[in-house]
Amino acid sequence: MAGTVTVPSASVPSTPLLKDELDIVIPTIRNLDFLEMWRPFFQPYHLIIVQDGDPTKTIRVPEGFDYELYNRNDINRILGPKASCISFKDSACRCFGYMVSKKKYVFTIDDDCFVAKDPSGKDINALEQHIKNLLSPSTPFFFNTLYDPYREGADFVRGYPFSLREGAKTAVSHGLWLNIPDYDAPTQMVKPRERNSRYVDAVMTVPKGTLFPMCGMNLAFDRDLIGPAMYFGLMGDGQPIGRYDDMWAGWCMKVICDHLSLGVKTGLPYIWHSKASNPFVNLKKEYKGIFWQEDIIPFFQNATIPKECNTVQKCYLSLAEQVREKLGKIDPYFVKLADAMVTWIEAWDELNPSTAAVENGKAK
Amino acid sequence: MAGTVTVPSASVPSTPLLKDELDIVIPTIRNLDFLEMWRPFFQPYHLIIVQDGDPTKTIRVPEGFDYELYNRNDINRILGPKASCISFKDSACRCFGYMVSKKKYVFTIDDDCFVAKDPSGKDINALEQHIKNLLSPSTPFFFNTLYDPYREGADFVRGYPFSLREGAKTAVSHGLWLNIPDYDAPTQMVKPRERNSRYVDAVMTVPKGTLFPMCGMNLAFDRDLIGPAMYFGLMGDGQPIGRYDDMWAGWCMKVICDHLSLGVKTGLPYIWHSKASNPFVNLKKEYKGIFWQEDIIPFFQNATIPKECNTVQKCYLSLAEQVREKLGKIDPYFVKLADAMVTWIEAWDELNPSTAAVENGKAK
User: Fold this and answer.
1) Which chain B residue's Cα is nearest to A265?
2) Within 10 Å of residue B242's Cβ, how many Cβ atoms?
3) Which architecture, in CATH terms, is B22-352?
4) Cβ contact (<8 Å) for A158 and B215?
5) Which of A208, B82, B171, B186 holds its CA 20 to 30 A away from the CA of A361?
6) Contact list, A164 vs chain B (CB under 8 Å)
7) Which of the residues in chain B have pLDDT under 70?
């Protein structure tokens, strides 16, 4: 019964999917040699490189890639005082790339992520799988036990209401990691040798009302549908916390997707995560987050967005006020974060005037 | 960080797990030759066979199995007038077996289900996997992207609140099917040749607040935790509907598990479902359900159980009244079903007096 999205199944499609509608955003502090391995899959696409740290350093990008690169000086020049909402010395800076992109879709990947192999030994074209995920609907309102019903060879099972089989638009595709799993510092310390070798051949929708830990390592989204919610917060230099940038974005994004009836998928594609970051350094970055998340999670689980918020921007500003009011009591950091959330939306609308005008239903 | 349940990994454990604490319930109308294939896995366990249809027919059970068998005459004799709540000429009759079991765990399987093979070609011990699922906690309150965090080689990912890592008790383990997928009649008709050949190597918790279609073909549960909610309704002979028995049980059970903070898992183990039932016959049984489920699903999505209902029985009786009041408006069938739900609980408590007394907190 389900409409299957027909996409060429070869690893390297002859015409790359969405070639002119997708940007690849990469935050980095080093030469991008990792792109060599991705060349067959990424070369047709445009890259947005967000250089973190010392802006005088030169980042080498392998020959033949089409890219634009922004360092901290560029960010300050383009955003002026609003640059304060973009983190420094933390991969949270990547969200600047989402803001300056002019494309409908964004794929973001870390520079320590390599091409993984599927169980048959074939290289996995992660980008192609993300695109498949984004172009086919999600099923946030009811759980399908055979996983993605739009996938070839699968469908909705008996008992799945027919009125829900059209699904919802997919806003986010969250991919996973073979080799080094995305663990927090305490788990890294307790299980230093754990490697993820289980290839789970599934894509699933995270149900409406359910929060999940969104990792920014291997992530794609529809910028038109959810872009302004993909703010990675204030982390790193001058902030009391790190390594919660993608989590923060994921919680805000999920609450807004639930409100706007948009879908979020997780599962395939896998990338090969090459090396674990230092658990001692990570613990220092994370430890406040480890306490705070015990309050943050119930906050987001109970957050409701007023009915009249019908754009991502309006939803996001509503969330910012709730963060200020409710999480501000935990620590002054959250008041600063709420301010930055507002600044982020102002900056987004400034750089994306047409979308802002259309989405907010008024001329700018 | 997660405690892993250590269970012998051989297909045929030397000491069968929970040998004296688990019954296998099989509804049938034919000789149970299918048990031959399951012999290495099932023979150590006690079987409860619920014979449907003509009670004068003799059902042959292969040698060497330890079993008790109930036909319609037995059901009528044991339950008296309360036998009206047990369906006839429908596999819904299986729930009589849950009621007469004296064990903590129940595994139920259809007689057209055979041993499946994992991708390495090894026979899957479905029962062993169900037991692993039931003996390790669930994670209904927050989604873990690497699936079951209690499984060896997996854990909770970064961003998963530490206060939730103990998980919840697991009440239900829902297994899947290779070969013939569990499709409704319309999907069977549209895709007569579709076979499920995708082995997804995952077990996951169905999140709190999310409903799913529970299939009774390959299912295990903790009778002490959730038994009285596993009523398969009024189906088959004399009823306007069939093939919604397991769905009905699943929806009631899930709402109650959410209320009582119990977990429900789906995924592994797979069984090999040998043959598709006749889609034309199925359509006749299902067609009212196809309409009704459009109202039933929102009903269960919005159902709330009063806080003071602290046993499965009390929760179930509360649901029965809501069914009568709200679904009774759709069709008088639901009033009859609500009556049967009450009768079921009365019969359950009669056959399980100690549990009833303990769970309801009063002497009987």
Assistant:
1) B145
2) 22
3) Alpha-Beta Complex (3.90)
4) yes
5) A208
6) 297
7) 1-14, 355-364
- Residue A56 CB contacts under 8 Å (≥ 6 apart), including other chains: none
Taking the CA atoms of residue B169, residue B172, residue B178 and residue B180 in that order, the dihedral angle to the nearest 10 degrees is: -160
Residue appearing with tokens 């070369």: A43
Q: Angle of helix A312-326 relative to helix A333-351, nearest 10 degrees?
A: 170
The pTM (predicted TM-score) of the whole model is 0.94
User: Across the interface, which of B142, B162, B174 has its CB nearest the CB of A145?
Assistant: B174
Give me the sign of the Cα torsion angle A280, A285, A288, A293. Answer: negative
Q: How far is CA B104 from CA A107, B66, B215, B225, B258, in A?
A: 49, 18, 21, 9, 21
Determine the Cα–Cα distance for residues A8 and A107; give it in Å rounded to an integer.
19
CB A90 within 8 A of CB A250: no
From the list B155, B161, B201, the residue facing A294 with the nearest CB is B161
Q: Do residue A243 and residue B142 have CB atoms under 8 angstroms apart? A: no
The answer to whether the CB of B312 falls within 8 A of the CB of B226 is yes
- Chain B: residue nearest A147 by CA? B200
CA-wise closest residue to B340 among B352, B327, B353: B327
C-alpha atoms less than 13 angstroms from C-alpha of B215 in its C-beta half-sphere: 26
Residues in chain A: 364
E strand or H helix at B23: strand B22-28
- Which member of B163, B244, B250 has the closest CB to residue A294? B163
Q: How far is B187 from chain A (nearest CA, A)?
A: 6
Residues of B in contact with A160 (CB under 8 A): 184, 213
The ipTM value here is: 0.93
Query: For chain A, what is the HEC assignment?
Result: CCCCCCCCCCCCCCCCCCCCCEEEEEEECCCCCCHHHHHHHHCCCEEEEEECCCCCCCCCCCCCCEEEEECHHHHHHHHHHHHHHCCECCHHHHHHHHHHCCCCEEEEECCCEECCECCCCCECCHHHHHHHHHHCCECCCCCCCCCCCCCCCCCCCCCCCHHHCCCECEEEEEEEEEECCCCCHHHHHHCCCCCECCCCCCEEECCCCCCCCCCCCEEEEEHHHHHHHCCCCCCECCCCCCCCHHHHHHHHHHHHHHHHCCEEEEEEEEEEECCCCCHHHHHHHHHHHHHHHHHHHHHHHHCCCCCCCCCHHHHHHHHHHHHHHHHHHCCCHHHHHHHHHHHHHHHHHHHCHHHHHHHHCCCC
DSSP state of B226: H
Dist CA A328 CA A321 (whole Å): 10
Q: Are A242 and A176 in contact (CB under 8 A)?
A: no
Tell me if B159 and A197 make a contact (CB, 8 A cut-off).
no
- Nearest by Cα to B230 from B253, B214, B208: B253
Give the span between the Cα atoms of A229 and A259, in whole angstroms.
12
CB contact under 8 A, A212 and B147: no
A236 has a pLDDT exceeding 90: yes
Q: Judge: B159–A294 Cβ closer than 8 Å, yes or no.
A: no
Q: Which of A161, A201, A213 sits opposite B158 (nearest CB)?
A: A213
> Which residue out of B118, B145, B148, B156 would a mutagenesis test of the A interface target, given it has the greatest number of A Cβ atoms within 10 Å?
B145
Mean residue pLDDT of chain A comes to 94
Q: Burial-class residue B274 by CB neighbours within 10 Å (0-12, 13-18, 19+).
A: middle
Residue listed under structure tokens 């091409």: A115
